[in-house]
Amino acid sequence: MIRVVLPAHLRNLTNTEGEVKLQVQGEVTQRSVLDALEARYPVLRGTIRDHVTQRRRPFVRFFACERDLSHEPPDTPLPEPVVTGAEPFMVVGAMAGG
Amino acid sequence: MSGVRVLVGTRKGAFILTSDGRRERWDISGPHFGGWEIYHLTGSPADPSRLYMSQSGGWFGQLIQRSDDGGATWEPVGNQFQYDGVPGTHQWYDGTPHPWEFTRVWHLEPSLTDPDTVYAGVEDAALFRSADGGQSWQELSGLREHRSGSSWQPGAGGMCLHTVVADPRDPGRITVAISAAGVFRTDDAGKSWQPKNRGLNSTGIPDEDAEVGHCVHHIAMHPSRPEVLFMQKHWDVMRSDDAGESWHEISGDLPSDFGFPIAVHAHEPDTVYVVPIKSDSEHYPPEGKLRVYRSRTGGNEWEPLTRGLPQSHCYVNVLRDAMAVDSLDSCGVYFGTTGGQVYASADSGDNWAPIARDLPAVLSVEVQTLP
User: Fold this and answer.
1) Are B127 and B143 in contact (CB under 8 A)?
2) Long-range contacts of A67-70 (CB under 8 A, 24+ apart)
3) Are strands B97-99 and B89-91 parallel, antiparallel or unpaired?
4) Of A8, B187, B309, B330, which has the fewest CB atoms closer than 10 Å, so is most exposed?
């Protein structure tokens, strides 16, 4: 199981609390995790990645294992602790404002 | 007994205020989608239970929510607003070409006759239409592809299409307004568009009476007389008696002709409301007095309406989509402020009272008169 932590605004949209647990087919990458996430919660389509280009929205970041993975290519395998479920994959809204 | 539902969009969620026809006691529900910017929510004239909401934010983009039960529950519908073809460029603030980029939906305008048909005015300026209750959206790209499109420039709030006025007598005729391109009208249901800015004069642009480039803030129309349009421009209150073919100024004796919203009385087509604001650099009322001005002569002669409104130390703004009227026998008038107050008058503006005091900054106010 892949554990995904969503920011508050997206938990609000998906009516979820805490972590989301996903089954991901094949290699575990940003793309495959986000595909599985959007398949479970279609409301998230367009909120994390652009509908057409599939690029990460500018103020969204991806963290895991104390690393910022936002600039990794989307098909790069995610760290092993994310694959095993030891660590979550975190979707983060960039800090802004006062 | 009839009732009223006031739909309020704010910087941090939506609120729904309801009252019976006396409009003395109000129930408030919300925040709906707390923390999200709700630029606009509005109801279908053909089915008052059907509501549409524009929900957006800088982090997570645009969503459209739909309600089929008057706002008790909401369902996300389509949020893919894709320009037709390669959208090209418009002018940026510094005069350089800037690619057309979708940012948000400013305004939703449901069809007068079909609850599943709704128009969306967006930033960067374009008009989209859905005929399936918001599930999918198609651009009416003849507007953006107008020969002047590459010269359009954003106003301070972004290059937004914020006003959509449908002609109740002619389903093919739609008038829109864009900041800061001006007014455009289609007479063939959105295939082709023509600028309708003759008579506008704007000192902030190089050619003061240019065909396009005017910062129109809002347009209002009375359904019984669709050829008459009232406009609050950046500066100047204007009127057209020929569906936008030409405009003339009706600012008359207003203390300032800068402002954002403009509204028409439900039963008196020549009774018009504006909220004068001191200037474009001081977005607050003149003298710190929050006054709605009413003309009962279709413009030029204006009277201040102050009873129940703060008359000292008031420095809020009233945004372009934040004023509306109900259609009860004694017409109700409503507006919301950037200070989070929603004021209502049940007697055409003679007396006012706050019906909500401490909401987040109000972006839009719409009113539904319920049977």
Assistant:
1) yes
2) A69/A30
3) antiparallel
4) A8
State how far the alpha carbon of B35 is from the alpha carbons of B51, B58, B63, in Å: 20, 11, 13
* CA–CA dist B232, B239 (Å, integer): 9
- One of 3.10.450.50, 3.10.20.30, 2.40.260.10, 1.20.1290.10 is the CATH number of A2-93, namely 3.10.20.30
The CA distance from B53 to the nearest CA of chain A, in Å, is 14
CA distance B362 to chain A (A): 19
| Cα distances (angstroms) measured from residue B256 to each of B159, B200, B216 | 24, 17, 16
| Contact call for A51 and B34, based on CB within 8 A | no
Q: Which residues of B touch A97 (CB under 8 A)?
A: none
| Closest residue in A to B13 (Cα–Cα) | A9
User: What total of structural domains would you count in chain B?
Assistant: 1
Percent over 70 (pLDDT), chain B: 100
Its pTM stands at 0.96
For B92, the token pair is: 């940026």
* Domain residue limits, chain A: 2-93
Q: Note the pLDDT tens digit of each residue in B280-305.
A: 999 999 999 999 999 999 999 999 99
- Optimal mutation site among A51, A54, A61, interface B, most CBs of chain B within 10 A: A51
Q: B35, A8: Cβ pair inside 8 Å?
A: yes
ipTM associated with this complex: 0.89
Q: What is the CB neighbour count within 10 angstroms for residue A68?
A: 12
User: Across the interface, which of B33, B35, B60 has its CB nearest the CB of A47?
Assistant: B60
